[in-house]
Amino acid sequence: MIKLKTSKKAAVHALDLFGHWPEYLFFVLLVIGFVISISARSAFISYVVIFLCGMMAGRLIYYRHEKPHLRFPYYLILAGFIIGYTLGTRYGNWIILITLFLAGGFVSYYLHERGFIRDIPY
Questions:
Q1: What pLDDT digit, counting tens, does each position of 6-56 carry?
Q2: Do the Cβ atoms of 58 and 106 come closer than 8 Å?
Q3: Cys-Cys link to 29, which of 8, 81, 82, 88 (CB 3.0-4.6 A)?
Q4: What are the residues whose beta carbons fall under 8 Å from the beta carbon of 96, sequence distance 6 or more?
Q5: Lowest-pLDDT choice from 1-10, 45-54, 65-74
Q6: Within 10 Å of residue 71's Cβ, how many Cβ atoms?
Q7: What pTM value is reported for the model?
Q8: How many helices (H) and strands (E) does the chain have?
Q9: What is the DSSP string of 21-71?
Q10: Residue among 91, 77, 104 at smallest CA distance from 23
């Protein structure tokens, strides 16, 4: 916990970065998604990038499926990324972007579940 110096009359006595990490990562990934989508110069590049990001999200969800108490924070973080990416997209349709993100997530989850993609834990 990071302590902030405040007076006794102040309502907030500490900034709890570790207790509220999903909200902070939501905002950080919202900004990162926005910046990545702004840098894409065509709809095709936006579609490829969002599909690959969806595949990484599917991998993350696959490795978190054994811990149900940790699922929601990761869904919140991924929602922040997809919202930021969708807001920053100049080229392409937002419905196609969300569909490709979900499709990439499902494909990656399925490939990990069936053992076609294996990962070596570090």
A1: 555 555 556 666 777 888 888 888 999 999 899 888 999 999 999 999 999
A2: yes
A3: 81
A4: 47
A5: 1-10
A6: 13
A7: 0.78
A8: 4, 2
A9: HHHHHHHHHHHHHHHHHHH--SHHHHHHHHHHHHHHHHHHHHHHTT-GGGH
A10: 77
